[in-house]
Amino acid sequence: MNQKRLRDYGLQAGSMPCGPLNKITDVPGVRVGHATIRDARHHTGVTVIMPCEDNMFAKKLTAASYVLNGFGKSQGLVQIDELGTLETPIALTNTLNVGVVHDALVSYMAARCEQDHVAMRSINPVVGECNDAQLNAIVDRPVRQEHVFAAIDAACADFDEGDVGAGAGTVCHGLKGGIGSASRVVSIAGKDYTLGVLVQSNHGSLQELTVCGRRLGEEIIARRNEKPLEQPNDRGSIMMVVATDLPVSDRQLRRILKRCAVGLARCGSYFGHGSGDIMLGFSTANRMPHGGMHRVLTHSVVTEHSLEMAFRAVAEATQEAVLNSLCCADDVTAEDGKVIEGIAKYLG
Q1: DSSP codes, 242-300
Q2: pTM of the model
Q3: Which residue, of 24, 168, 264, 268, has the fewest CB within 10 Å?
């Protein structure tokens, strides 16, 4: 499996420093795991982001979402927007397997809460999706509960990228997309904080693909001797998950999430009609106890001016995460014999 990332080609999105792995897991406590299904008919799977090591239902994380274009079928966003908290792992999968993955997260958290002696009568699982039907017989809905549990069990810091897990069947800017990640470090009042992004890329048109200022999509079309489209079609979807240890409110976090769009635009996306561009985020800094009846909690948050660095960081990290999703993906052949090329041959 190709794991050559953007920086291995001597390219870099922006100039801010990154964390040691340049992945979302540079945020302390965050882990990511995959389960991949790959056979003659299927290229799909599930990717799970574990936001912390302890019970996130008992101690909820500050969370927010932002929908740039709502052509999507995610679950759990309504409660996140209302309460500003996250209480389960975040799972990504294909469009038609959202329900099964949602149910698996309920089962996982029910078992975890029973183990920790935490009463659980309701819960808000968060599941994002992209439609991978170009490469996957999606109506078969091959993802099962055991795949979700396997992804959770496999969660680690240095996870694979590219055509794995929920990215096994996705197509990005006409090339093989998948899972990609990047991180940035920001310094506020003399203290370093980390902001990381993970994407499931399944969006964009080849003609608009831009790699660190280079109009690579147009070059690829010319090399293939293809005729450029009069009107490129930016469709598909992208899930963007942001993690940080910055002490922010859910409102401030939503402001940060909106700047993911800057990173997408730098890669050539214009958020077309048929593209679901959805952003989710959480902070590990402030936790909300479950069942805190009639209590007053004290949380620390940064000032609004301090968000300036976070805005820049999330733009850079999103751009590099998208490009890493492309760089790490190999050629994939669909059941009908159609080949979706990886980007590597055009970067070398």
Answers
A1: EEE-S---HHHHHHHHHTHHHHHHHTT----TTEEEEEEEEEEEEEEETT-TT------
A2: 0.96
A3: 268
d(CA 238, CA 275): 8
Q: What is the mean pLDDT of each run of 10 residues along the chain (348 residues)?
A: 92 96 98 96 97 96 95 95 97 98 98 96 97 96 98 98 98 97 96 98 95 95 83 83 98 98 95 89 94 79 94 98 97 90 92
Residue 109 neighbours by CB under 8 Å, 6+ apart: 57, 87, 88, 120, 123, 125
* Two structure tokens written together for 234: 């930016």
User: How many domains are contained in the chain?
Assistant: 1
Residue 342 lies in a domain: no
- Is residue 338 one of the residues assigned to a domain? no
Q: Which residue has the tokens 């994407």?
A: 199
Q: What is the DSSP track for 96-160?
A: GGHHHHHHHHHHHHHHHHHHTT---S----EEEEE--TTTS-GGG----HHHHHHHHHT-BSS--
Place of tokens 């730098």: 266
CATH number of the domain where residue 315 is located: 3.60.70.12
Strand partners of residue 209: none
Q: Which is it for strands 126-130 and 90-94: parallel, antiparallel or unpaired?
A: parallel
> Which one, of 53, 44, 54, lies nearest residue 25 by Cα?
53
pLDDT recorded at residue 234: 73
Q: Is residue 343 part of a domain?
A: no
Answer whether 155's CB lies under 8 Å from 143's CB: no
Asked if the structure places residue 337 within a domain, the reply is: no
CA-nearest of 36, 152, 141, 37 to 88 is 152
Task: Tell me the residue range of the domain where 243 lies.
Answer: 6-332
Beta bridge partners of 179: 162, 200
Residue 296, token pair as written in the block = 């007053």
Catalytic residues: 237, 275, 277
